[in-house]
Amino acid sequence: MTHQKRISSVARADLRLIADMVTPGSRVLDVGCGDGALLEMLSKKKRVDGRGMEISQGGVNACVARGLSVIQGDADIDLETYPDEAFEFVILSQTIQATRNPQRVLEELLRIGRRVIVSFPNFGYWRVRLLLGIGGHMPVTTALNQPWYVTPNIHFCTVSDFLNLCDEMNVQIDKAYALSRTGKSYSFRRPVIFANLLAEEAILQLSR
Q: Whole-model pTM?
């Protein structure tokens, strides 16, 4: 399994939104932290006690070069080594769709973190529907920016799909944001008809 980050020239819009959701000075674990852009942002702006886990050696090397505390690990396997409620925030940004067992990973995140922040590309986004429905092929968009034969994404879902999973797991949704193609964000509540159609990405804060 490969976890790949899509980073803009300055800072990814969802990373800035995630950073705003984190309490200053808190203990944070960023799972699938890529090159450490979010951890570095949180360390500088929020003064968090940050840790990271990244599956790729290149990502780990990039994080270490930034002076970050990051270990090499696989979210599907290595989260079980962390004790219960070891962190105030656990973050899984643009990674859950690349895991082999998303439900199991989410269970582990909720065990080791008091609050969990998850972001993912929305497969229900209208451009995705248009490209798949009319074009007849797997879509390539800003959020889903690789062709099907090289993408690390193996479990696509829509906003509605993810909320249904939270219901099945009795997970509380504390905050929910939709992110547009231009990087604008807005909060949403159920029913999620419009968010499911208009959000290119979704970002949710969860708890038990």
A: 0.90
All domains in the chain, ordered by first residue: 13-207 (3.40.50.150)
Say which DSSP state 61 is in.
H
Q: How many CB atoms lie within 10 A of CB 180?
A: 15
Q: What is the pLDDT of residues 144-162, one digit of tens each?
A: 888 888 888 889 999 999 9
- C-beta of residue 206 within 8 angstroms of C-beta of residue 166: yes
State pLDDT tens for residues 163-173.
999 999 999 99
Chain centroid, CA 129 distance in Å: 21
Distance, CA of 79 to CA of 4 (rounded, Å): 19
Rg, Å, the chain Cα set: 16
Q: Decide: helix, strand or coil at residue 118.
A: strand
State the amino acid at position 199 in one-letter form: A
Cα–Cα distance, 198 to 136 (Å, whole number) = 20
166 vs 144: CA distance, rounded Å = 23
